[in-house]
Amino acid sequence: xxxxxxxxxxxxxxxxxxxxxxxxxxxxxxxxxxxxxxxxxxxxxxxxxxxxxxxxxxxxxxxxxxxxxxxxxxxxxxxxxxxxxxxxxxxxxxxxxxxxxxxxxxxxxxxxxxxxxxxxxxxxxxxxxxxxxxxxxxxxxxxxxxxxxxxxxxxxxxxxxxxxxxxxxxxxxxxxxxxxxxxxxxxxxxxxxxxxxxxxxxxxxxxxxxxxxxxxxxxxxxxxxxxxxxxxxxxxxxxxxxxxxxxxxxxxxxxxxxxxxxxxxxxxxxxxxxxxxxxxxxxxxxxxxxxxxxxxxxxxxxxxxxxxxxxxxxxxxxxxxxxxxxxxxxxxxxxxxxxxxxxxxxxxxxxxxxxxxxxxxxxxxxxxxxxxxxxxxxxxxxxxxxxxxxxxxxxxxxxxxxxxxxxxxxxxxxxxxxxxxxxxxxxxxxxxxxxxxxxxxxxxxxxxxxxx
Length: 452
Fold this sequence. Notes:
By secondary structure, this protein is an alpha/beta fold. Helix content is 17%, strand content 22%. It has helices spanning 171-178, 228-231, 254-268, 296-304, 322-335, 376-383, 390-402, 405-411, and strands spanning 5-11, 44-48, 63-65, 85-89, 93-97, 103-107, 113-117, 148-155, 161-164, 196-202, 206-212, 239-245, 277-282, 310-313, 362-367, 370-374, 419-422, 425-429, 444-446. The strands form 4 sheets. It has a 6-stranded mixed β-sheet with strand order 10-11-9-12-13-14, with helices on both faces. The termini are far apart.
């Protein structure tokens, strides 16, 4: 089954936590900290697979999660790194952020492999936090959070030649007659419901890829019928062959049919009409010229050949005129051969996507001299910070400064000597501008112990 769009959830692996342990061996009474580092979380990687031409693999499985890193161990043992999750997609796949609709990556041209979401870094074990004044640190660094994101995958077929035209004009018949493709063919509208690709081989070891683009009717640019579902596949084609039913077998005017399709292409993307275009007047075996009237093929040639558009009379059903048409298409394919397919630039920073939003920190004024600080982020920080250790307390003070907590408290009116309550901990605030540079930064003092 051909699937050209899919919505999926992706998540990288969380970094493993650093480990807290101390060397305990016979004859080594004070071995010191030996907690190892946590392992790195697995990445989410997108890779082009030349053997794929559909996003069917993502239709029924919409969740892809990399493995998290393991926690470090004693004896300075490093935790196992998480395994990367590699998603293989066809060439021409565009990855968009589902919420913002911005392009993250276009897997075309030289973009064959990208790390879409990076895994979290492993946390440092307590062996890294030993100092001459704190030789037995009882805390370690947690691993970095995983990244997660909802994305949409859009496949835009990459072909040298694209067949366009109204339904039932013979696009599928032409593709089947001159390539290895075998699309369904029947005498009713919308026989073709998916793009089909075929390789056209010419004499002299020449070949190009041809695509049958379905779904073009009047109003397609506004989404009528299959509309936008398949118009995007035209954008990457180097040459367009506009097939028209020159016989008017369904009571339509061939000249009007060409105008309808060109108008829809222009409304969708005006740059499409700048591509080389050939008009193939099909079903000429059904034309019966009436005396005194001009042939439809002649009228089309008189109008479009002065504009530099080649017009060929063909009959795909009887294999008439196809060689000349394909040679004419090859002429344009050869000219555009050195051109690389258009690659859409990323509209987001890969280093920033998928990061969790900063957790809110709630600051309140309880009375004239008492304030409270709460929030998931600060509660999480306290879970891995030892406030009884000098280095841990210094880290806590720097955290309060870096997160703008002190600044928010000052806006609420906090002054030197006021009290700050943080999840069972009580601190007295002092203004660092009144102290020497040697004092601990951050303006906090644990009321249980004079740390200055």
